[in-house]
Write a structure and sequence with these properties.
This protein is of the alpha+beta class. Helices cover 27% and strands 28% of the residues. The strands form 2 sheets. Strands 3-4-5 form a 3-stranded antiparallel sheet, with helices on one face. A two-stranded antiparallel ribbon has the order 1-2. β4 and β5 form a beta hairpin.
Amino acid sequence: MGLLDSIINRLCWALFPHTGDGKTKKTAILFQGATTEYGHIGLQYAYLAAKEAKPKAQVAILDENGQYAYDWHTTTKGEFWFKFPKELLGKGDGTIEIC
């Protein structure tokens, strides 16, 4: 990763802080600044790119009894779990926001 990429990466995560480490469903990463489903999806792929984790497969999981929707990614660097509030499903115009 070059210097410019490193600076952009740091700005991105400053604008969109997250909680969780993404290692399990219980500790899934939640981006606090994204306001749409597609905003979360864009940040997921930006996060994976920053980790140099090339996606192999992605599975969407809806927690029927909980408050979150989950995306589970398998990558060249292992598995990553992400979550976002179910109330954001279908919100937005379909534009994927990426840092």
